[in-house]
C-alpha cells in the first residue's frame, strides 16, 4: 500500500523561535519549581543546617521531625496541637461545600440551558453579576444576617458562605457546557415522558463527567485555600487549615522554626496538589468542552 509522503522542505531541527520557546518554558518552570524545591528542602533540614544559609542544597542530615511537629505539636496560638486540627476542620467544611455548590450549580445550569423559563436570561445575568463584585463588600452584611439568624461562627455558616459564593461560577460552567450538548437528547427525553428531575439525573448528569471534574477541582482549590471566609465565619472551633497555618507562622516565640513553617505549608497544599495530579487530564477536557458556547 502506497503511503503519502509530506510535501515541502523538512523543518530544521533547531530554530531561533524554538530556542525562545524552550528558554521561556525553562524559565517558567524554574520560577514555579524553585520555591517549591526550597520549601521541601528546608522542611527536611534541622535548624542547625538551615542557619548555614544553603537553602537550595540537599539536606546533609535528612529528618522528618519538622513534619511531625507541624502536624501534631506546633503551636497555633494558645494550643499546641499542630495543624492536624485545622486539616480535619477543612475536610468537614470542604466536602459538603463542594457537593452542595456543584449540585445546585449543575441544576441551575440545566434549568437555564434546556428549560426556557421566562426571565431566565435576566436571572442568569443577576447571578453572574455576583461573581464580579468583590466578596469583601458582602462580609459585613453577611455577618449581620447570620448573627440575626443565630448561625454565625458555626460549621453551617461557613458551608453556606462557600455555597453562595460558588454558585455564580458553577452555574456559568454548567450552563456553557449544557449549551454544547445536542438539544435532541432533551427533546427525545421529553417525548418519552421525562420530567425535570428524571431528565436531569438520568440523561444530563451522566453526560456531565468532564465538567463535574472541572467544578470539583475549582471548588476544592478555592475552598481549601480560603482564608478570609474561614477566619470570619467558621468560629474558633472550626478554623480551617489556612487559618491554623497563619497561626503557626505568627505564633513563634524566640527563634523562628523555618523547617516547621515550611512543613506546615506543604501539608496545607497537599490536597489541591493531589486533586490536580489525579484529575488534570479531565480538567483540560472539561474546560475545552465548557468553552464551546457562551
UniProtKB/TrEMBL annotation:
The keyword Oxidoreductase does not apply. PROSITE patterns: ABC_TM1 (PS50928). Keywords: Membrane, Transmembrane, Transmembrane helix, Transport. It is found in: Cell membrane. One of its GO terms (biological process) is transmembrane transport. InterPro entries: MetI-like, MetI-like_sf. It is a multi-pass membrane protein. Its main location: membrane. Residues 87-279 form the ABC transmembrane type-1 domain. The keyword Iron-sulfur does not apply. The chain crosses the membrane at residues 21-40, 93-115, 122-139, 151-174, 195-218, 262-284. CDD domains: TM_PBP2. GO terms for cellular component: plasma membrane. Belongs to the binding-protein-dependent transport system permease family. This is Carbohydrate ABC transporter permease. It comes from Microvirga alba. The lineage of its organism: Bacteria, Pseudomonadati, Pseudomonadota, Alphaproteobacteria, Hyphomicrobiales.
